[in-house]
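Async update (no meeting this week)

Hi team, since we skipped the sync, here's where things stand on the single-chain job. The sequence we agreed to prioritize is pasted below, unchanged from the tracker. I ran it this morning and attached the output directly underneath so nobody has to dig for it. Comments welcome in thread, and please keep replies under the output.
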Amino acid sequence: MRQHVNPLSQFFQLPLSLPSKNVLFRNSDHPIHLDIGSAKGEFLIELATKYPDWNFVGLEIREPLVSLCEKKRRELELNNLKFLFCNVNVSLDEWLSDFDYGQLKRVSIQFPDPWFKRKHFKRRVLRTNLLNSIAQYMCNDGEIFIQSDIFKLFEYMTSTIDKTRYFKRKDLGDLKSLDCNPYNVQTDRELFSLKKNLPIYRAMYIRNSLLFVR
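Output:
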């Protein structure tokens, strides 16, 4: 399975009609946690098991991973979890419009592909248009959680979010990042980095209730 796919290739520019929340979930009115770049899905599988009163959605651009995650989800009979294949920067906005206002309460973007070369920055998943879509449909005081083990990428992510002004970073005093995952559930990449004693950079942003997307 390829580790990276080019989200700007013609194939990934085709918008997909994602299933509505009423099709995805037995209890479609529960609050939603959206994980962008869900990879092997273990993070959401554990959360969905622990919190049956939440609905969880994993969006992933690598279709074979989505198939693998869906197989695991069905075996565990998790009806509050769904993994979907899409390019979030193409298909997310229309899909979010199906949610009740404020139903989207949490978004996590964890260890996204770094795309190190400057000419490839435009391939990074976190972009202004994506944040605008999230801000439009997220509840007041909703959360965006980000983490990476690459400091330059973390700086890029925080700078991109700061520039939108729709989200305010959680005040940690003199600390530059959170010292642990606030959900007490680790992704595969997080566990790998911790095992190797690599630094992990984390930040939590809160939806600014005073600013509205126009």
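Quick observations from my side:
The chain has seven helices and seven strands.
The mean pLDDT is 85.
Reply here if anything looks off.
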